[in-house]
Write a structure and sequence with these properties.
The complex is a heterotetramer, with 2 copies of chain A and 2 copies of chain B. Chain A is an alpha/beta fold. Chain A has 14 helices and 17 strands. Chain B contains 6 helices and 3 strands, in the order ααβββαααα. Bound molecules: pyridoxal-5'-phosphate (2 copies). One pyridoxal-5'-phosphate sits between chains C (95-97, 125, 127-128, 173, 177, 202, 204-205, 225, 227, 366) and A (254-255, 278-279).
């Protein structure tokens, strides 16, 4: 296979990949849970702590000055990555979960009342289910669910009926973390907008696989986690259209998000600061920007092409294993694969693969409704990114075959 | 009957011959396969210890002062460890179980399976086994008094 | 002055302190905003990213296993630091602001209704004002304020009247970030408990100056930020009594904080996980534990003694400057000093000190009500920790004198 | 009157003799002290540009096609920079102000004072000065048309 990336070079950028576990070379196929960090990200975080660390905004002194401009430059990097119209639309959060909770709260407080409906899909991650359930519990609203078919593809025909005049927002994942499906979010957004309903897209599993253009999608909110796109933990992004964010009440209260504070009343700061209460994780945000710069240097297009080839190869190889069933067979997909072998318990398989040095995830992957759909307790999930190789896929296949021998 | 800690030491010795993890697992799989399935009437939610990734069912009786355990798991490696626990604790008095530390799991390199964050139900099962022992001991003491 | 710390050794542990800014040695006196990180913290963060990075909990594989046990060990380190009864009482959050918002929301949802009252103090940081105001706005409750006298000490006699049968919670800072006052929190807690009212203590400015014993204090909640106690940014702690946390609804929804998720309803995980939605900042939490271990290795008692001497020295020197007014003169204090010189604008002073290499903060320090109390717009604040020295204080004093010469 | 950009270059040259930051500040303080205080009727909330740490007041008139600025700050170094801005922009036509880039602040090493996150009100003041220029230009064009 001839693929357009210098994988050897790329792998050398990721220190963790050269490790041994149980005296076997590490084969890390749990990228859906979290991705590894290139050296440039690790070094940026270290450099910031060794030379610049200082609280941002409001500081008159040199370190604060420098750190503030690095932080605001990171915001610009994220803006460009998403092609947002303005840095006022880029909020740094604690992660994808933090971002969704912020929207569910702020949007919910302003626009959701008893009898209203929130539309999500059957394949959402718990982080895009539970915040809406909590909101519905508080407000007396209810959740409506777009189902998927047995290939793991949304049944879009159902959407029209689900979008009623009580629907306040649609919250949909861009790519499924357990089945790999890439959803036709643009179509969903169009349908929702036709009825005046805003849409939140959960990009937690999409951004690490390719560039996203929020203006082309015309989504109202877009969220993701830094740690899933090769950046540091504890950081995330909430994109929101400026006109909408302007109208929303803040999510958290604290330092930096206020203008004037008296006990009689408080006025809030302008965007994006209104949504960044307290000392933000500036190290995380700047580390995320370093990760995005790194991805740019490799090229999103090349990454996308490489991953598509890897995906095709993996699907073919997995499909060739007797008694192995793949859950989620959408053609338009990211390099995430869920499967089960005969009646082998996924936990057993995971433990055995682990001892061969192969890190996969087993269980529900925080998408219990997906498991319920298929009537299973969990799957084995291998999730790949551009630093994974054909050889690693081969090792996985061999590992699966050995596991079957041991257990079947 | 062999001393409680002697059995633990035997298990540790048995495992020490395996150099490869997969051999250890193969052995556990064998043990798991050999352990009879739990009586279906105990394979119910009432006796379920939910480990979120794998399930363990456990039931215990006290017969003539000795505990009789009945346990199972839906994951075979977990069931192998369950088999070892049963081998060790079955037909013991509550006192024996409560007095002695459980060291063999650590000794055969499976400690992580008993860590509080492991979602396989084993730690909860071990705790439950000791709880059974305590409950039956308390009941026996009461019976003696009355 | 003979002080019981090997300051030279200690300073060599902090890479950033050896920098030059504007060709002058950096004198970092903005520790109230954020503290610097010792090498061991920076190295821990790097090591985790280079060798162990993996999503915690639920993972069957080696890295996940190892990272999980490091994370849970960090929880135990924090538990021991606070002398909490159980690790179930230690929640890792995104920071002090995140911790307070979590309590204001979860406690507020459960216990606060129209007409209820929240008691805070006049010296709270905005992060311990605004979340309660937002709660009060939502619920129709109101804020009552414990005032302070012109020395910056709470007027405790007012407390008895403020604690009514409508008071639901008292939220009080352990130490003031703008005046340095250490509050008699134990007495306040006793008075509140006598009326059955729980108390949250904001320890954001206290923990870096000495060990805290939550069981001795008997507070119901205690919160702080990692970045202010020499740990990484983007991480914080919420301590809550287990019996209380058990009763509270979760704050954020997402992965890991749930037990079962269906669209009909969701059940929550046990403590502490119920309050840790989504992928937590495990790198931050483990880095925080490394910082606490470092502090232990130096000894809290020695740190406390050193800082007290430094505080006495600084107060004396500042007091000797003609026309300089100190805001906050409580005897029981941390090494934080707010002041103004004659009618010099604090911003001018801050800019000039900056160019001498001296990093101070100017402005309201997110405590606008404190400024309003004194009828001023802001102060200059120098905030010291145990790596600061007498020589640095001398340089500050000299810098102030030069500033006065330039401006007065 | 000297060319707009020549004045900017003059300021840059003037500052280039200072090797030390404190000398630069001393000079700015002098300029600030020399700038007459704003007419009290403009030192009001209506003309305030709140920079959260220091305040700037600004008012502008158009007299015979030229802008007359009146400005002040409560912080003296900021006022010194204000004085430089006034020296440059006062008695200029709106067109002159709108056509030319502002490069001297960068050139004298004070760029950070104009960064969007700087809370001294200067950036907002510069924006406001240009806004005044735009508004008066629009008004003049209208007058011509009618
Ligand atoms: C689709 C999706 N949404 C949201 C999340 C939550 O992300 P985080 O745990 O980083 O907050 C995840 C990660 O597991 C995900 O896969
Ligand atoms: C007393 C006090 N409480 C709360 C906070 C908020 O901390 P953070 O900004 O880390 O969330 C601060 C920090 O500025 C503080 O000084």
């Amino acid at each position: 296979m001839k693929m357009g990336l210098n994988i050897k070079q790329i792998r050398s950028d990721f220190p963790i990949l050269h490790q041994q576990v149980y005296k076997k070379p590490l084969i890390y196929l749990d990228n859906g849970a979290t991705t590894q960090k290139p050296k440039v990200v690790i070094d940026t975080v270290r450099e910031l702590q060794e030379t610049l660390n200082s609280s941002i905004h409001r500081g008159v002194h040199y370190l604060s000055e420098q750190m503030t401009s690095r932080y605001e430059a990171a915001r610009e990097t994220v803006r460009a990555f998403l092609n947002a119209a303005s840095t006022n639309e880029i909020i740094f959060t604690s992660g994808a979960t933090g971002s969704i909770n912020a929207v569910a709260f702020s949007f919910g407080e302003k626009y959701v009342t008893a009898g209203d409906e929130i539309v999500i899909s059957e394949m959402e991650h718990h982080s895009n289910i539970v915040p809406w359930q909590m909101l519905c519990d508080r407000k007396g609203a209810s959740i409506k669910v777009i189902p998927f078919n047995d290939n793991g593809e949304l049944i879009l025909e159902k959407l029209d009926d689900l979008l009623t005049d009580r629907t306040r927002i649609v919250a949909l994942t861009h790519a499924s973390n357990s089945m790999g499906t890439i959803n036709p979010v643009k179509e969903v957004i169009k349908k929702a907008h036709a009825k005046g309903i805003p849409v939140l897209i959960d990009g937690a599993q999409m951004v690490q696989h390719g560039e996203v253009d929020v203006r082309e999608l015309d989504c109202d909110f877009y969220i993701f986690s830094s740690h899933k796109i090769f950046g540091p933990t504890g950081s995330g992004v909430l994109y929101g259209k400026e006109s909408i964010l302007e109208e929303l009440p803040p999510y958290q209260g604290g330092g930096d998000m206020v203008d004037q504070v008296t006990f009689e009343g408080t006025s809030y700061n302008t965007l994006p600061f209104k949504f960044e209460a307290g000392t933000t994780n500036y190290t995380g945000a700047i580390g995320l920007a370093a990760a995005l710069d790194y991805l740019h240097s490799i090229g999103f297009e090349a990454i996308g092409r490489y991953e598509q080839e890897l995906t095709g190869y993996t699907m073919e190889k997995l499909g060739g294993i007797d008694g192995l069933k793949i859950y989620g067979k959408a053609a338009n997909r990211i390099s995430v694969f869920s499967f089960l072998m005969q009646n082998i318990h996924p936990y057993d398989a995971g433990m055995i693969l682990d001892k061969m040095g192969i890190a996969v995830r087993t269980g529900t992957h925080c998408t219990q409704p997906v498991m319920d759909h298929f009537g299973i307790d969990g799957t084995i999930r291998a999730s790949l990114v551009f630093y994974n190789t054909v050889e690693e896929v081969d090792a996985l296949i061999e590992g699966i075959q050995r596991t079957i021998q041991m257990l079947a | 009957m062999t001393d409680y800690n002697e059995i633990q030491q035997d298990i540790v010795d048995e495992f020490s011959v395996f150099e490869d993890w997969l051999d250890r697992y193969n052995y556990l799989i064998e043990l798991g396969n050999d352990l009879p399935a739990i009586d279906p009437k105990y394979r119910t939610n009432e006796y379920l210890i939910n480990g979120c990734q794998s399930k363990v069912w456990l039931h215990a009786d006290l017969v003539e002062g000795k505990l009789l355990f009945n346990a199972d798991s839906d994951a075979i490696i977990v069931k192998g460890i369950v088999a070892l626990l049963i081998k060790l604790m079955n037909k013991r008095t509550p006192a024996e179980i409560l007095e002695n530390d459980l060291f063999f799991i650590d000794g055969i390199g499976l400690r992580q399976n008993l860590s509080p964050t492991r979602s396989n139900g084993l730690l909860a099962m071990v705790k439950k086994m000791r709880l059974y022992a305590m409950a039956y001991q308390a009941r026996e003491n009461q019976n003696k008094e009355s």
